[in-house]
């Protein structure tokens, strides 16, 4: 089932507009190409409406936001919604600064996101809806573990219902819910945390998967999450003596480039709750 | 002959000022180093005149333009022209948004470019000179094929004559013309389209080749195009099981790093029309 | 001794705020992860104070400065000082443009840096304290060679005393001084100059090493410099036929990822003068 979602991306070749941070933008572009999509980047307010109009989906990532690009996010988001496009929010660093928290909350107020993807700390900040500054440590909720799983699933389902979005909370265990069902995904490797931008890459992937599977949004995002995690496992199995996090980054993207639907179906590790 | 152009780059070590997009900028810098040049990046209007003054050439790429960097493009371009430097335009996304089309057209009005490099769709947009927004699909002209080759060559020659620039239209078949002669180049691999930024990298290369071969501009750009395409072939031949587009990106830049004039002369596949 | 500094970084996991250029930012992030630290990037004036407050150190790199990010540098720097954090300056291109020179000099006037790291040309520009524009060539002082070593050591010691900072001048021979002692370091490979951003990466590393070894600042920076140079040697020894500067970039970061204190102690090549 999830494999079919990947095959649809390859068949459909979705064009994805990214307003994303300059740290990981190159990897986001290459991951989109690896899965069969096409990336376009544009954050200038005068440019974003035209660009998003020719795309199928919009990926908004606030990782290195500035006043000009924030204006671009609102303009692009509203235009994309007007056109019925997929819009995803990656609230990088929400909770770590007032500007980031406020921007993410305001974006959610004014734009109906198809999907929100972040770590548990960022998503908890958004669920509180408050714009106060919290340090990373003060705000870190318990990570999702086998012990806290039931509570976390309930939280993600509730937040998905409240936002009418597919919500993906990623970490050691990934949760993807549309408010009714929740995919509990156990793909991936801990070493992925030693590469900058695997989360940003996943947000790009999820946008492409949603565009190519817009009638099947929960499965689309779950498939993107499994693709990323499985690529982390395959990439790791291809590591050689002396390889480290920089080579691992390449191997993960390579693994996505080479993945087909059958491989994804065989390698995806999830249960539905 | 083309090999000599590459050797001149290695001997000359041209310093190239790049105002380029933040998606592919790191690869552009590493490609310039790989061919024997040196990169400097600067887009702030208050900084660009000083920076361009110490360089031999300027590479303007509008891939992630914003209002501030657009001002930088005009300032740097005018200063570079005043100093008799090489200036190249890469009109990324011209035709895809009004801002991009207008910016590229206005740049061409105010700055006499030594070279313009883009895909067929971008160059056709510029040749119409209009600032209206066209979606990517609406604006896509036929790609250059064996069937449309004669027409395409005539178009590129005419545009080169009109702009008094070396024009490079790159795709499956690459065309490089100064208005009189046209190099028809058949190097490269289709998989290069699965890497972000091979076009941006080529624009950086072409600028360095022009600076180091300023008396021989048509050959300089043809040599840069062949270098990129041949590196794509050599890089591909070095791919191993499990490698994908991310590793391919590295292998292409590596191939440029290791290329000498003799290899280029042997591997370049072109005819002159 | 230097190995212990690296082990402290891995044990401490310092969070480093980077205001750095968009050319090499991804590599800076991956290098920080490779050594055991964590990177955050933010340059928007309204965002930087909150972000720097949750970090242990701040790395300011003026490589692609613009008016907005310059304001961010001052705001972040003052906040970091107020909080007693480590602050490092990497004056990329000081001497190459009036804006860069003036910005670096003004930053030094208003912020007490813990460390200043650059090439000999940049540091000489800062030591003159003048804001006049000098071309790269006009400003290039003699590189540090065995012949000019005594003079260079005296210069670096004097500049460190004057600025009350650890000063690192990197090149073929690296000098690191706190004004009293000077580490003369002979690690590294000339091919590192064919990769963009090894200097920027080192500035990120040095910030992390300083945060995790704040009572031992001279050794901390010397350890970072030796780590980078030794990684260049190890990475080079892992190069295979056909590899070039792009693969070398990955291998250097990989070598840092795999380095332990014992390897660093064995491989570090320095004398103290």
CATH architecture identity of chain A: 3-Layer(aba) Sandwich
Low-confidence stretches of chain A: 133-140
CATH topology of chain A: the name is UDP-N-acetylmuramoyl-L-alanine:D-glutamate ligase
Oligomer: homotrimer
Shape of chain A: globular
Largest sheet of chain A: 9 strands, mixed
Helix content of chain A: 40-55%
Distance between the termini of chain A: 17 Å
Task: Report the average pLDDT across residues of chain A.
Answer: 95
Order of helices and strands of chain A: HEHEHEHEHEHHHEEEHHHHE
Strand order of the largest sheet of chain A: 2-1-3-4-5-6-7-8-9
What features would you describe in this structure?
The structure is a homotrimer of 273-residue chains. With 273 residues, chain A is an alpha/beta fold. Chain A has a single domain (2-272), classed as Ribokinase (UDP-N-acetylmuramoyl-L-alanine:D-glutamate ligase), CATH 3.40.1190.20. In chain A, 53% of the residues lie in helices and 14% in strands. The first copy, chain A, contains 12 helices and 9 strands. Chain A has helices at residues 2-12, 25-35, 45-53, 67-82, 98-110, 120-128, 136-139, 149-163, 198-212, 217-237, 245-258, 261-267, and strands at 15-19, 38-41, 57-61, 86-90, 115-118, 166-169, 174-177, 182-185, 270-272. In chain A, helix 2 runs parallel beside helix 11 (245-258) and helix 10 (217-237) crosses helix 11. Chains in contact: A-B, A-C, B-C. The A-B interface holds A 15, 22, 25-27, 29-30, 33-34, 39-44, 46-47, 50-51, 53-54, 68, 234, 238, 249-258 and B 21-24, 26-27, 63-68, 93, 96-100, 133, 135-137, 194-197, 242-247, 249-250.
